[in-house]
Amino acid sequence: MAGRAIHHLLRRRLHSQSTAPPVLSPLISNIDQKGVESAGIKSLRALALLGAGVSGLLGFTTIASADEAEHGLSCPSYPWPHKGILSSYDHASIRRGHQVYQEVCASCHSMSLISYRDLVGVAYTEEEVKAMAAEIEVIDGPNDEGEMFTRPGKLSDRFPQPYANEAAARFANGGAYPPDLSLITKARHDGQNYVFALLTGYRDPPAGVSIREGLHYNPYFPGGAIAMPKMLNDGALEYEDGTPATEAQMGKDVVTFLSWAAEPEMEERKLMGFKWIFVLSLALLQAAYYRRMRWSVIKSRKLVLDVVN
């Protein structure tokens, strides 16, 4: 009898727990409805955030494409051997770069800040530079009669100008003005990489890009259309030292020459900086030793307080 009573009570308890009271039924349905609504709101928020992210990405891509078209393609970073803290110029490359400038670039571009004497001891001997300068004629004067005259060039003369003035340069180049190359690697953002990428970056325009007659497509030039044609081609000249005159080699050499022209004091500045760092390091060691010797006695003293006497 006791077992049957216990079994009956357990069945009634389980039955009462499985059936919810009528008062709680609306609350349960209301909670379920709110849960469905909150899930829908979360889905809408997720979709809105996803749409905003896609719109932002598309907008950034559009801005990047417009910036690339306006300012040119970003240049790669090349490992120039003279960019190290204690690195110097490759003087053989400077000599080859000067040959590239003379035979390829000098017909249009000037280097008005460079004199022949600047090449002495850098790429040529003094006799070689004197013979090179004597090949040009310089208008000088006035003489004793007040007239201008021509004379052979000398070490103190600047490199000759390809055009008499800017108007003549623009007329000869279809309205485009070839810039002076004396400081070109300093005048352009990321100068050395930019000049090298520009000289070696000519290619056919992509589909949908039209270049008007007289211009050439170069993605590294702002706007993509440049008046200067491709000037560096494999075998365009013969180096004096027998180095193969590939497009990349000529570009590297002329950029090295232009880097030296823009910053001829770099090697001396680095050497002077290294000397000063060495001297200041010795002074620092001496000051540290003097401080330790002078103050070690004072810092190691012990003060004994005699409270009795």
Written overview of the protein:
- The protein is mainly alpha-helical and 309 residues long.
- It is built from nine helices and four strands, in the order ααααββαααββαα.
- α3 crosses α8 and α7 runs antiparallel to α8.
In a few lines, what is going on in this structure?
The chain is mainly α. The chain has helices spanning 2-18, 24-71, 91-105, 126-133, 166-172, 184-187, 191-200, 247-262, 266-299, and strands at 137-140, 149-152, 216-217, 225-226. α3 (91-105) packs across α8 and α7 (191-200) runs antiparallel to α8 (247-262).
Please state the overall shape, judged from the principal axes of the Cα atoms. flat
Largest sheet: 2 strands, antiparallel
Q: Terminal Cα separation, in Å?
A: 101 Å
Query: Low-confidence stretches at least 5 residues in length (pLDDT < 50)?
Result: 14-32, 60-66
Q: Helix/strand/pairing class, anyone?
A: mainly alpha
Q: Share of helix among residues?
A: 40-55%
User: Mean of residue pLDDT?
Assistant: 84
Helix-strand pattern, N to C? HHHHEEHHHEEHH
User: Radius of gyration, Cα only, in angstroms?
Assistant: 40 Å
Strand order of the largest sheet: 1-2
Task: Tell me the number of strands.
Answer: 4
Number of helices: 9
Sheet-strand content, in percent, reads under 5%
